[in-house]
Amino acid sequence: MSAALPTTSREWHLVARPHGWPKAEDFALREAPVTAPGEGRVLVRNLYFSVDPYMRGRMNDVKSYTPPFKLDHPMEGGAVGEVIASNAEGLAVGDHVLHGLGWREYADVPAEHAVKVDASLAPLSAYLGVLGMTGLTAYAGLFEVASFKEGDVVFVSGAAGAVGSQVGQMAKLKGASRVIGSAGSDEKVKLLVEEYGFDAAFNYKNGPVAEQLREAAPDGIDVYFDNVGGEHLEAAISSLNLHGRVTVCGMIAQYNATEPTPGPRNLALVIGKRLRIQGMLVGDHAALQPQFVQDVAGWLASGELKYRETFVEGIENGFDAFTGLLRGENTGKMIVSLA
C-alpha cells in the first residue's frame, strides 16, 4: 500500500436521460469518498479518459448490446492512469494501466480489469485511441468485417475522426488503389489529403454527398466504412461496385434524433449489386488484438501511421468534451486530460 491517499474524487454522474441533444442539466459533477482498495483491487489516479460516440446510446434506457448508464452513478468509459495503491498480485504502485472506469479522478478497479500499458512504447493517451479500442475498431472493421483486399477503392465517412482517420491510412498501407474520405470542414479535408495520405476528400456540408462521392470516385467504390449513416450510407450504396462491402461502425448523424430517421431510399440496389452490409462491435474481434498491436506499433514506429488527438483539460470540462465530440469539434481522438 502507498502513503496518504486522497480522501475524495470528483466523478461525472448521469442524472437524467437526455432527450435529443444532451443538456448540462442531464449531468452532475459530484464528489465521492476514496478508500483503500480491497483484496484483488487497485486504486488508480486517472490521467486521461476517453469520450466516445457510443456513450450517447448508453445514456438511453433501452436494451442494447451494452447496458445503459445507471442514473446517479458514475459513468464509465476507457481511461488510463497510474496505480497509487495496490492490493493485487502483479500490479504495483507506479504501474500504468488501462481500464474501463473513466469519467472520474480516481478509480477503484478490479485487478483483472486493469491492463498494464507501457509508456515507453507510446504516449499513454495513445492507448485510448490509436493503440486502443478505436484503433482496433478501424483494424477489425476494415480487414475482417469489410474483407478488404489489395486494389480496393475505399470510402470512409467521419474520416477525420479517431476511427475514420485510421481506416483510411490502414487501407493505403495495405494497398488500396484509392481512398476517399468525407469530413465536416475544409480544414479537416486538407488534413486528410495532406497529412493522412487520402487520395481525395470532400466536405459533406459543401453539397450533396452522392454528387461529391461520384466526382471523387468516378469508377465506384468497393468498400464503405460507415461512421455516419443517413445521407452518406445512401450515397455509398449508389457508388458501390458489384460485390461491394459496407462496415457499419457508427451512425453519429442519427444519435441525437428524437424521431425515427429515414433509411436509405435505394436499398433495392443491394440485390443487383450483391452488396454485403454488416454491422460491427469491436468486442467481437478481441482475437485480433495481438496482431493489431504488432502491426500498429510497427507503423507508428516507422512514422507510416499518423494520428491526432484533441485534448480537453480538466475533469470539470468532461461534459463539454463529450458534446464537442458529438458536434465534430475534435480532430482524431477526443480525450479529457487530468494529468
From TrEMBL:
<dbReference type="Pfam" id="PF16884">
    <property type="entry name" value="ADH_N_2"/>
</dbReference>
<dbReference type="InterPro" id="IPR036291">
    <property type="entry name" value="NAD(P)-bd_dom_sf"/>
</dbReference>
<dbReference type="GO" id="GO:0016628">
    <property type="term" value="F:oxidoreductase activity, acting on the CH-CH group of donors, NAD or NADP as acceptor"/>
</dbReference>
<dbReference type="InterPro" id="IPR045010">
    <property type="entry name" value="MDR_fam"/>
</dbReference>
<dbReference type="InterPro" id="IPR041694">
    <property type="entry name" value="ADH_N_2"/>
</dbReference>
<dbReference type="Pfam" id="PF00107">
    <property type="entry name" value="ADH_zinc_N"/>
</dbReference>
<keyword id="KW-0560">Oxidoreductase</keyword>
<dbReference type="InterPro" id="IPR013149">
    <property type="entry name" value="ADH-like_C"/>
</dbReference>
<feature type="domain" description="Enoyl reductase (ER)">
    <location>
        <begin position="23"/>
        <end position="336"/>
    </location>
</feature>
<dbReference type="InterPro" id="IPR020843">
    <property type="entry name" value="ER"/>
</dbReference>
<dbReference type="InterPro" id="IPR011032">
    <property type="entry name" value="GroES-like_sf"/>
</dbReference>
<protein>
    <submittedName>
        <fullName>NADP-dependent oxidoreductase</fullName>
    </submittedName>
</protein>
